[in-house]
Each structure stands twice: as structure tokens, then as C-alpha cells.
Amino acid sequence: MKKQIFGSLALIAILVGLTAPTLAQETPILVWIDTTRQAAVDAYIAAHPENADLIEVEIVDRAEFPQKVLLFNNTGEGWPDVVFAEPEIIAAVADEQHDYPLDLTPYVSADILDGFADGANAPCMTPDGQLLCLRNDLAHAVLWYDAPLMEEFGYEVPTTWEEYTALGEQVAQEHPGYIIGAFGDDQGMSTYLWASSCPTGQLIDVSTVYINTADPTCTRAANMVDTLLANGTLAPLSPFDPAFVQLVTEGKLLMLPAASWYGEYIFGGAADSLYYQEANGRLGVAAPLRWNDAEVAWTGAQGGSSWAVSKHSTNPELAAEFVIFVTTADGYQGTAPTFPAYQPAATVWSQTLATNGVYATDPFPVLEESAPLIDPLWGNVRYSRAGAFNTVVIAGLQDGQTVAELMPAFQEQLANLAQTAGYTVVTSR
User: Could you give all domains of the chain from N- to C-terminal order, each with its CATH number?
Assistant: First the structure.
């Protein structure tokens, strides 16, 4: 009886010209993106016009993605086949409750993986070796500075955090009102605590996380920030706060540790740029700062998103093809505002930088050399460090406390969030 049923189904498939693989190939995929990534979809369709009718797009706030996955799991439908989101968000939907991302290992060749910058896809890897996403871009922090202003003041570009602190104290004395950084939102955590290897979520294994804000790597960063906030050279503002932008407009920004994408996207040297509205060879860039006792100048990151495919996709082959294209294609990545994670595309992207007159010198060598320096021990965890940082540290600063004084409360909040997310928390290694 079973043989007859299967034989009949096969005959029907032959008669109508449809086989199982063909059905999968003709199934549309739903892609969730932000507005900036529409260019990625357009580039894919231009390269693959035969699949134009198979790509459906929705502009979605990815911050809502984890909660929406739970809704889709309850209703049994609605999952996007592809989502653009930070690796932290992908990690948040990789637990048993959400169970969203597909292991891309069978779909991505070793040659393609080898083309990514060292460590680029580490945040997409699980401890047991699954590849849950592919990185779109890197957002490693470097040191941006006003080259002519540094020369006018006679200052050397610092290479260590100790030199950076000393320069801040010198600027406070010699040029009060000038600033060397910002500390008013969770980017402060990424810029200063991450670059110091402060353990706010180091993964020991899939269910154990190391959190210890009393570690010397945390206290040294906290003390440095407190020193610079106290003398006025570190602005207690978000880099996107209008008051901070006004300081930049007034020429008061001497330097800013910030992500690689700040060059094109924030400083810019164009009429629609947030900081510089004209290209005048003003913007310099230096390698990430290191601590004197650190063997490697590990740095933090501000963003650096990825593409993931759903386990529920009815056309995972097309979804994976799309993800591979948008992360590796020269035509798209080579002109994007962010540093491509895929090295051949990054080389093409370097030509985009070369045409931007905002830079004092070609920034690409520095950006390329520092791309592998994002501290891998920071860990992509299933809880929001950024939320905890803003709620505890930034709010506490506004109430007159210091970063050092707020570290115990930050520890407690992180530990509570980690335990709620199913982790066992350890405070020593």
C-alpha cells in the first residue's frame, strides 16, 4: 500500500513537472532588514533577476525580533527566512525557547569562510561549532582625531590608554573645553570596558558565563573614565546627542575612540554628515589603544551586524545563497558605509575611502590592521548588557555617582539578567 502511495505521488510530480527540489527553489523567502540594508536586497536582485519574485522584504525594528520569534513559535507561522541583526540578537534567539537560527555550516564553503577577517564570524559560532550567522560588517573601535588641531596644540597621538588619560589631564589644563571622548550611553561600555577586557559576559560554555565587574580590567577602565569625566575632557553625552554634535561643530573635539563606521557615516565630510559638513583633510585615525600590561591592543565594537537564516525556512538553499551574496559581493559591500567583514570586499571598499577628502591620510591600512582586534572574550550572550549599562551606570552618573561606585550595582544587574536567561554565573576563573 505504501509503495502504491509513494509511486502515485512520484507520478503526479512528474506529470506536473514539479519535483521536491523545484518546489523549494520556487518558494519565496521573507527577508527582514533595516532601511540601510535595502541596498543589499537591490544588489542581490540585480545580480539574480531570475529570483526577483522570490525575495519578499519587510523593514523591521530588529530590537523587537526576539519577542516576535516567541510569538511566531506560539502561532506556528510568521518567521522571516532571513534576518539582519547583530550577533547578540542572534544569540538571544538561539536558546531552546526561541530556537530560530539555522546552522549554516552545510551551506557555506571553507573557502568563503576563510575570506572573512580573522575572528569576524567568531560571534556567530556556538561553543559546539555551529555557524548561526555570517557577519555583514565589523564595527571595531579605533581612535579618530582632529589632525590639524592635534598639530596646532603640539600633541602626540596616544598609543595606550595610560597616554590617553595623561593627554586628557593635559588638555584639561591647557585647553579647557576641548574633549577627547564621550561617555553618555552604552557605547561608552563598548568603547572603554570592552577594550579593557572587562568580564561582563565571558562565556565559559553554553550555559556558564563569567561576570566580575570588580576585576582589575574593569576597575582600571572605570577609574580612567571617572578621571576624564571629572576634568571635563570626557563629555557625559552620547556621541549622537545634539549637545555633543554642537561641540564638534564648534571645533572642540580633539579625538574620539569610536567605531570604524564613524569615518564614513558620522564624520563623513558631506552635507548630510552628522559631524563634518565638508571634506577638508581634517580626520585622522590611529590604531586601537592598548593598556600597558596588555600583549594585544584588544578593542571593542559598536554594532557590526550579521545575517541569519531561520530553521523554519521552506527554502533554506535560497536563503543561504542570499546571505552569502550580501556578505561577500563587491558591488554591495564595496560601497557600503561600514567596514566589510569579508576581506576581498573590504579591499574594494578601500577605494571608496580613497575618494573621501575628509581624511588627513588614507585610513584603510589602520582599519584593516585593527579589524581582527575585537576582543573575542567579550562574548555574545542572551541578555542585554547595553540595557543594564544604561539603566545602572548611565542613570547613576546622571544622579552624581561615579562609574567606580556603580560597578557593584552593574554586577548585580548583569548577574540577575544572566540567570534569568538560563546561565550559571561565576565570578572567578
Answer: 28-138+303-354 (3.40.190.10), 141-301+365-426 (3.40.190.10)
